[in-house]
């Protein structure tokens, strides 16, 4: 097979170009002499894993010359005699049970990673080929190590097997996950006879041992399909262990009486070496062949060449699956199907006892819509991400980044609770690029933002102010309608100065609501990846104490959902607490003004008018009161939510931003408890923002490209941003 990587062909020894795939496989893996293979008598190639070194070693027991190889019995004894599910008493003995994979060298990591950070197809192909290995022995943990720098005190990340155990789904994500976690994968040989209870006992023993060794740190369980069922059962039986579950297309729908198509029973009645249920198991646990073939081929290739390579890859993927089907014994499929059904029934019956954090990832498969609803009903605290346009194996799909999803859902933590400072991991270059493609580039095209800043001498210059790290910085701005410009402000400093702004935003943007299933690559997820956190006094305190650059909209939701006649009006709370916090930490306050966002919507009926209606208003009141709020206001319970305004969109206005002169608060540390000084500084910040808005509203009348149509025509014609007024 031709594996495409960086636009070039990589040769490898496999089933590629072989007229007889079984013969080619025999040459590599020392199959028995011709005629000795039958559906009930398969010669087993022992594959021994060293538990004392970091390398995989294998040995081959060749049959004696002239004699037919004897049938080898696998795992006749119960699993509990092989690996005790009880906690390990000796840490050295515990470590000896973990098989180390070969450490990736920096050169190999470089050649197996595409420029955009996604793993190349070689790793996916290598994991697929392992399905044809004659792997024997008991279930065991495999540890993944990488040359990539890992976060300090990285939590343990246990990957549980699907009904057919393989590292295929994890292969695309392990390098990025290794930056955040210590990764181990439970490998279960396909012919192993361990029951669900055996595997659950093994996992329980591991998490209890590791929990006692890693005090105060969570343990993550990743489960796809059948693995998700095991994770649910383990979490339900161990509510006292701090667990975080990441479930991918959980197979809870398999509790039905018959999960196989009726034709399978008919075909299995006929003699033959292969069970007709194997294609079903392959599709569910390994992935459909088309998705695997796409994962092998480099997505950056030209479209025609990529399609050609996908077809070649698809052929070889099908050959590998056909070979694996013959290698496995015929009774594997019915036994696995029964095991799957039993695990689904057990997980559903225990689901209400799950106390762990749960993140569920759903593809667009038909059964997932009902399962998503059932899981949210049984585990109300679970949150999810839906990928309705993806129908294959979700973790093999291009554009699905597991590490990013965990961070974006606020599930990544290294302690008992998430710390917005120490648990924040800056976005990778790939995550920044995703934000650009998904939102920032579009915002820039539509609104064509321009920036100004006031220098120390009072002159106004084009461009952003230079932010330094000497002191914490607090950017304070007016809140335009619904805050469409938040992404523009964050993205501007990210692109020009590589500074990540920690925005204090409404809980609707920064916090998943219980039972919520959000769409993929949503703006809330991307703003969280860039550092946005729920707005609160404690959040501001922690961020400024860590000398972060913080963005604050004091007006909150009340100022965001404006009423008629309130354009560019500051509606701030009476207490100047953010100023007091800034003085406490010696922060630099930079007042800034934003103009353009309040014209994005023409208000027909504002919130006050709608909420005063007899029937509709009462319904909106109830819905609004159920929504999370950043703070309560003194103006009534209708002022803290976003429901009620009716308007029509206008042609996108141009966005203007000006940054006023910095206000240094470190000299006011002795006046922290002086209410008069604090109130005076509060009013100074407000007046600076109001002055900035007045300046922009006046000067934009001089902008020949203020309106959307001439601005868009200019930028499409000349391929650059339209000019604006001179400051």
UniProtKB/TrEMBL annotation:
| Record-level GO cellular component terms | membrane
Family to which this protein belongs? Belongs to the diacylglycerol acyltransferase family.
Q: Which source organism does the UniProt entry give?
A: Ceratodon purpureus
Could you identify this protein by its name? Serine aminopeptidase S33 domain-containing protein
Renumbered to this chain, the Low complexity biased-composition regions fall at 49-60
Which Gene3D superfamilies does the annotation name? Answer: alpha/beta hydrolase
The record's listing under PANTHER family reads:
MONOACYLGLYCEROL_DIACYLGLYCEROL O-ACYLTRANSFERASE, TRANSMEMBRANE PROTEIN 68
Q: Which UniProt keywords apply?
A: Acyltransferase, Transferase
Q: Which regions are flagged for Basic and acidic residues bias?
A: 71-80
Pfam families linked to this entry? DAGAT (PF03982), Hydrolase_4 (PF12146)
Coiled coil segments of this chain = none
All copies of the Serine aminopeptidase S33 domain together span 198-381
Residue span of region Disordered: 48-88
Which GO MF term does the entry hold, naming one? diacylglycerol O-acyltransferase activity
